[in-house]
């Protein structure tokens, strides 16, 4: 009987370890970081429910990636794309606004520009009504394409059709 209990305890430990590894994998792939066509720029598409824990995970990962890439590749800009996010994915709008503000400030302190794209009209209205103090200071665009056009023009790049 004691051997059976020890075996079951070990099985539980093994399953807990597997669960932890899978949770880490899910966290890793839930925040994709995509290199942009514009040099020194990355895109981070944000999807899914944005609970405070998930926002913390997203912003922690982006801060770590931005810090590393600013040294290795001269990262200048992070584009956060909220196109797939509606009001129902955002829990508490004031908490969401606080994360946006803190995230922008943290990247700014690292010398990295933050561009936000894809806020829906209802999310935009709620952010304004939430009293977010930096609404006027946010660099925002309706679409990823518009943000890329802005960054290309700002940095002196142009796309040209090959003849």
From TrEMBL:
Cell wall biogenesis/degradation: present as a keyword of the record? no
Coiled coil as a keyword of this entry, yes or no, is yes
Signal sequence, start to end = none
Q: Where does the STAS domain start and stop, copy by copy?
A: 39-151
- Report the coiled-coil segments: 1-28
Alphabetically sorted, this entry's keywords are: Coiled coil
The protein in question is named: STAS domain-containing protein
Which organism's genome codes for this protein? Answer: Pseudobacillus wudalianchiensis
Lineage at the top is: Bacteria, Bacillati, Bacillota, Bacilli, Bacillales
